[in-house]
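Entry type: protein chain
Record version: 2
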Amino acid sequence: TMGDYFKSAGYKTGIIGKWDMGHTEKYLPQSRGFDYYFGLPYGNDNGCVAYSSKVYNIKANPFCAPNNFLNNISLPLYENRKIIEQPVDLTTLTERYAQKA
């Protein structure tokens, strides 16, 4: 991966923002060569994900459409491998991304 490539050249690597390359542990940025991650594991327009609490730790967002196949879990915000907010407050997310950058 790009993370592995830059690390092999001696760089520290990080990603801030939407990852959207997979939301389970084996696909998160730190499993793909990045040292630091602050962001969403998929687009905020998805809002929920169809997988159970085996993946995330908080129940459904009440705003998720009941017939939407992505309706089980609220959108999480990660810092490294830890969910730090769920559901994420999108009204402050851009500012927080800028602070982390």
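Comment: Strands lie at 14-16, 36-39, 48-49, 73-74, 77-79, 82-85.
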